[in-house]
Amino acid sequence: MPSPGVDDIRSELFPVKFTVEGGYKTQIDENSAMASRLSAALDAGWVAAIPSTPTTMTTAITTEFADISATGHGKGHGFLLAIGMGIDQEVTAWAGSWDTTTGKHKHKVESSKIHAAILKASPTQSNAVTALSNAVAAMFASNFSQEGEKPAD
To answer: Taking the CB of the first residue and of the last residue of the chain, which one, N or C, has fewer CB atoms within 10 A?
Structure first.
């Protein structure tokens, strides 16, 4: 399925605002390196084109952030991979639910399920992790085109 594109992904996701421990409000800005790289990775991984094809978000994120894994940023890198795993898990469930009789998927991709899967896979929890995973899940679910569906009668 076609990606909304790097620029649209970035502008829909960012800024991500959250409160850090101690009560300080901060954000991940749309023009930050993190925003650019994560948006590029999500765009690259957004490849499901037919009802039986899942995304490859985990692979795309691994590739985009290979330098981070090589420098030992374990939990941060693990969280980035969790974003890919959460999306891949939900899209794989969707792809596997294709009903050849009805020409529809039984499973619907939902933001709340992606968000929960990301948090479950993440090796770390924080307000930033929660805010970014929620933003990614909402953006992906709202732009997920369930191609291959036959129009309702």
So the answer is: C
The whole-number pLDDT of residue 72 equals: 58
- Where do the domains of the chain lie? 6-143
| pLDDT exceeds 60 at position 153 | no
Q: What confidence tens digit (pLDDT) does each residue in 47-77 have?
A: 655 555 566 888 888 888 888 765 555 667 7
Give the number of other Cβ atoms within 10 Å of residue 67's Cβ.
10
Contacts of 119 (CB under 8 A, 6+ apart): 82, 86, 125, 129, 130, 133
CB atoms within 10 A of CB 8: 14
CA 89 to chain centroid, in Å, comes to: 10
